[in-house]
Design a protein that fits this description.
Blueprint (H helix, E strand, L loop, with lengths): L9 E4 L53 E5 L11 H11 L4 E5 L3 H10 L4 E4 L1 H9 L4 E6 L6 E5 L13 E4 L5 H14 L6 E4 L3 H9 L5 E5 H9 L4 E4 L14 E5 H6 L1 H20 L2 H8 L13 H15 L12 H13 L3 E5 L12
Parallel strand pairs: 2-3, 2-4, 7-8, 7-9
Antiparallel strand pairs: 1-12, 4-11, 5-11, 6-9, 6-10
Length: 368
């Protein structure tokens, strides 16, 4: 497992292909590893939902019930473990049900946040930036993960990076974290972000099939899938980009909602931010097997694997703990330095091409 071995700026996403008709044409296309999910059919609402009353909550801050969380694809990765284990447990203790809502890509998810279909969701700096540029009043208010969940797998006989130079390698889509992972790693290991012969295959199962058919020499998958394919001798877990590209923490996935909700329901979102951060801290202190069992008893649908569900997720969680997937100090989240470093990486590897102010991207009211 290879895992063991200045001033604020903002950036605009490149527009690729035809515009999207839902009104967020600039948003970052599909979420990583979109496995063909359709748009959510959850009805929209302008208010925050049916909050718990102070009497019911014993004087605690009101939380929407259900608390609807937007996901850009059905894929559940290691970074979502605290949300659907420890945070879910805390919400249950408050009488609040978490409802994951799956959208068909970041564009649809941002539209769902704005229309009131969900209270919050996670996105990334390029997608958030482009949404704001299109006139949608959203901000990120908390980090989700500071390290990469995408890992690089390769054919079993690949022994060096030089063998992959110019070789066929598959990413999820041109502007996904999958592509970012591959381009950034190519730059780190081979000195050129375009060193691979990159093609695009949407969905982890489809990329794994391409590996089995020997159509590509390498690709990216989430850590849990990397463990599974290695166990089944389909491919080797070749490289963990957290060993080089993200050796210093980045601001990758971020929790977002509308500016109006942050202003109108400030204490609600403060409580959500604090409890999510508490779940990150507890995730390092909780036994990985216990966390693995908790996520399969949650409302989220984490993928099952032929090589063993709990066993694979136990190893995935151990890897996330070792990588320090989550930041536990709120004052270190969404800093100018960290967000700028993430944006610089995306710009350097061709994911984005225009810079603007970081302060317009994030809302740090809960972090300072």
């Amino acid at each position: 497992m290879p895992h063991r071995t200045g001033s604020g700026r903002r950036t605009i996403l490149k527009t690729v292909g035809a515009g999207v008709t839902v009104g967020l044409a600039g948003c970052m296309g599909n979420g990583d590893d979109d496995n063909g999910a359709s748009d959510s059919d959850t009805s929209g609402s302008d208010d925050i939902g049916d909050e718990q009353s102070d009497d019911d909550m014993g004087g605690e801050v009101e939380i929407p019930n259900p608390l609807r969380i937007g996901h850009p694809s059905p894929a559940m990765a290691g970074y979502s473990v605290p949300t659907y284990s420890l945070f879910n447990e805390e919400m249950e203790s408050r009488g609040v049900e978490i409802e994951p809502v799956v959208f068909n890509g970041f564009t649809a998810m941002v539209a769902g946040i704005v229309s009131g279909e969900v209270e919050l969701g996670y996105s990334n700096p390029p997608a958030i930036i482009n949404s704001i540029r299109e006139g949608f009043p959203i901000s990120s208010f908390l980090e989700l993960n500071q390290k990469f969940s995408q890992q690089i797998i390769a054919q079993p006989d690949i022994e060096s990076w030089e063998e992959l130079e110019g070789a066929p390698v598959a990413a999820h889509s041109p502007q996904s974290f999958s592509a970012l992972t591959l381009r950034a790693t190519a730059e780190s290991q081979l000195g050129d972000p375009e060193a691979f012969d990159l093609s695009y295959i949407a969905g982890t199962p489809n990329r794994i099939s391409a590996m089995e058919e020997e159509e590509v020499d390498a690709t990216t998958v989430f850590a849990s899938a990397a463990i599974d394919v290695e166990e089944r001798d389909i491919a080797q877990w070749f490289h963990n980009p957290n060993d080089d590209v993200a050796a210093e923490p980045l601001s990758l996935a971020q929790w977002v909602t509308t500016d109006d909700r942050l202003n109108e329901y400030e204490e609600v979102y403060r409580t959500i931010a604090e409890e999510l951060t508490n779940s990150y801290e507890q995730a390092y202190e909780t036994d990985p097997q216990e966390l693995a069992e908790m996520i399969f008893d949650s409302p989220a649908e984490f993928p099952a694997y032929d090589s063993g569900d709990i066993e694979v997720w136990e190893q995935t969680i151990e890897a996330a703990q070792e990588d320090e997937m989550w930041e536990t100090d709120m004052s270190n989240m969404l800093t100018d330095e960290r967000v700028s470093r993430s944006i610089d990486l995306a710009e350097r590897t061709g994911l984005i091409d225009e810079v603007i102010e970081v302060d317009d991207l994030v809302d740090r009211r809960f972090l300072e």
